[in-house]
Design brief:
It is built from 19 helices and 6 strands. With 379 residues, the chain is of the alpha+beta class. The chain folds into 2 domains: 289 residues, no CATH class; 73 residues, no CATH class. The strands form 2 sheets. A 4-stranded mixed β-sheet has the order 1-2-4-3. Helix 9 packs antiparallel against helix 10 and helix 14 packs across helix 19. The longest helix has 30 residues. The protein is globular and about 65 Å long.
Length: 379
């Protein structure tokens, strides 16, 4: 956690183009700092901060150079993908980090692990065929496959997620219901024929809705708070906050939006960390402990909480049965073949069991640890 606070301080320095205090840096363990920065995808921005203090630590410099290279390669390749979409008259919209990286002070500060692009669902087969012909692979164990996006991988660093829905298709879920017909809210680009973009308000709302999903599943790291601060610093004064508040209420994320916005502004408005309330400190340390993509322990704890809220049961045995034999909705989302061919469902149970044993041991172990940490009377 201490290294997390060091990372936060250096990130703030980079955002404000301020030289870090040399005495503070002397007390930092660079090896441990690098590890926590990698966990949060903030190595490049911290490298900029260290560099401003005259410290060109080799591993941080490598991470910074790699971040810049990845952005350049991803941008070039994305242009090729968008050109294909234009030629085939397929409407599209790049998402999230593709734009956010432009709002950071220097190139590479906002590291890119992948690029996300939303397209019309009717074109997914055409795009899928072209991406595979271009040398991309679709991970076989992707649980999102055929639900709301496809992931495409190609060396050295090409990772694209092609969405045909912004969120998992869960009927009744307020976020899915809000975004399932999102085309009506999109604005046509001026410099192409089939590209679209969000208004500044709708981009912010989507960014927070996406972050909300991660925060209440496996967690989301400090980079999410940095993204929020950077975006607000650029657009806050010109956005329609009444509209944002109304839309967040529809999405049932209003409380999270308000708290995360207040925390981002409070934490990053200065290089010196202000006094935080107990609730603010707890929330900040949840971010610091989660990393970019959350943790399996957090995810397991949230699954148990959801089970308890829905069933009123605190029985370990009932929860384990629920995980081994999940409801049909799980098969519809993650295993569409078995959902479509229900007569083969027993094979699906065995498949999930063996896949868990051989492919997801760490997740199972984390979930079992979380179960054992439950307080109160469990049977």
């Amino acid at each position: 956690m201490k290294k997390g606070y060091d990372m936060l301080y250096l990130t703030s320095c980079a955002l404000h183009n301020e030289k870090p205090d040399s005495d503070k840096i002397k007390n930092m363990n660079m090896e441990k700092l690098l590890k926590v920065c990698k966990f949060h995808s903030l190595t490049a921005i911290v490298a900029y901060a260290l560099e401003s203090a005259g410290i060109k630590e080799e591993n941080f410099q490598k991470e910074k150079s790699l971040a810049i290279r990845n952005i350049m390669l991803l941008d070039t390749e994305r242009n090729q993908i968008c050109q294909f979409l234009e030629e085939n008259k397929i409407w599209y919209m790049p998402l999230k980090g593709v734009y956010l990286k432009e709002y950071y002070p220097k190139i590479g500060m906002r590291q890119m692990c992948d690029n996300d692009i939303l397209i019309e669902e009717s074109a997914i087969k055409t795009v899928n065929r072209w991406m595979i012909e271009r040398g991309y692979e679709v991970p076989k164990n992707s649980e999102h496959e055929k639900n709301h996006d496809y992931e495409y991988l190609k060396k050295p660093c090409y990772n694209y997620e092609i969405h045909f829905s912004l969120f998992a298709k869960i009927p009744g879920n307020p976020i899915y219901e809000y975004y399932k017909n999102i085309r009506t809210k999109l604005i046509k680009d001026a410099d192409n024929n089939y590209g679209y973009h969000f208004s500044s308000e709708d981009f912010y709302i989507y960014m927070i809705a996406h972050e909300f999903g991660h925060f209440y599943s496996g967690g989301t790291g400090l980079r999410s708070l940095v993204d929020t601060y950077v975006y607000l610093r650029k657009f806050s004064d010109t956005m329609d906050w009444k509209y944002i508040e109304q839309e967040c209420l529809k999405l049932e994320i209003a409380e999270y939006e308000e708290k995360s916005r207040a925390l981002a502004i409070k934490v990053f408005s200065s290089t010196e960390l202000p006094v935080l309330t107990n609730d603010e400190k707890e929330m900040l340390e949840y971010y610091l402990g989660a990393g970019t993509y959350g943790t399996t322990t957090n995810a397991a704890a949230q699954k148990m909480k959801k089970f308890e809220d829905e069933t009123g049961s605190t029985s370990k045995f009932r929860y384990l049965l629920h995980r081994i034999f999940p409801p049909m909705e799980t098969y519809r989302l993650c295993f569409p073949f078995f959902y479509k061919h229900k007569i083969l469902l027993p094979i699906g149970w065995v498949y999930r069991l063996f896949r868990g044993i051989f492919c997801k041991q760490n997740i199972i172990k984390s979930e079992m640890n979380a179960i054992n940490q439950l307080k109160g009377n469990r049977k």
